[in-house]
Amino acid sequence: MERFLSPSELASLGLAAVGEGVLIDRAAVFVNPGCIRIGSRTRIDAFCVITASDHGVTIGRRVHLGAGCQIFGGGGAVTLEDFTCLSGRTSAYTTCDDLVDGHLINPTIPAEYRRVQCGPVTLRRHAVVGCGSVVLPGVELGYGATVGALTLVRKSVPECEVWQGVPARKVGMRNAERLRELEAKLLAEYPD
Fold it and tell me: Does some domain include residue 1?
């Protein structure tokens, strides 16, 4: 048996849109697939779970989701622009229960007993999230922003900054000019 879904199997998932050359492992799970869009040349590895609300999940071109990634889009839009990457075992949440102020938690509890933070999650072009990291609601990773392994991302990361740790803090910078040059060279050689 092939590891990745065939074109006809991809079509049968019921995704809102799926580009050309998409590779999705047979062990990936999609919840509310009619609100999920996937761009061309994207790869989604085994054991990924992608849940979408009516706000939608949009995954751009040439995006990679490593094994065991989880996107929980129940409380806002999730946007992964072109050339982004969620490394293995990363999680992105658009909802988060208040665990401090004494409210009850979990989706089996009526809303009036809970306090839930909701917000979109956005990864701009060339943003990368290292393995085992967690991205919380309302976070935007700017163009080329990078989050190192095992990082808790509670606030947005500016363009091309490299952040790592718990709490997350800036540890370096990426070369934006080189990213643009290499992208242009790649697209000239391998146009979509």
Answer: no
